[in-house]
Amino acid sequence: MSLILSSEPHCNTLQKVLNEAYVPQNMTQRTMKYLVKRINATNYLYITKDKLDVRGTSHNKPLYITTRCKDCTIGKVLVDNNLALNVLPKYVLDEMSVDSTHMLQNTIIVRAYDSFLRQVVGTIEIKLSPQVFLVTL
Fold this sequence. Notes:
By secondary structure, this protein is of the alpha+beta class. It has two domains: about 1-40, no CATH class; about 40-135, no CATH class. It contains four helices and seven strands; from the N terminus they run H-H-H-E-E-E-H-E-E-E-E. The chain has helices at about 1-5, 10-20, 30-40, 90-95; strands at about 65-70, 70-80, 85, 110, 115-120, 125-130, 130-135. Strand 6 (about 125-130) and strand 7 (about 130-135) form a beta hairpin. The chain is extended. The N and C termini lie far apart (about 45 Å). The model has no long low-confidence stretch (mean pLDDT about 75).
């Protein structure tokens, strides 16, 4: 707070971010607090208006990004903050040369997008700096 009060450029930048942020009218105070806590200057992903689908924010198309982990490029990473389960194909883990001894056994069975049931291999924690994700294989 002292930085914002003592620095006009910082204050102006914060005001700009708040003015341009999309906040749904029905967002609860608890959700807003959660979102504000998740803001991280080194890990910021956003879509500008000129890159939005013609339907704006009312579309339901998934957002995919490409990232790197352990010098391995991982394409088509699905970005969805509402996922109950992060899934990673085993071949991607193998390409990253991750020691499978870090994997925790798991007996979960999931229903895939094609409606078939799949047994998972295990669970592992993957850090895509600075974020940590619990991933099920």
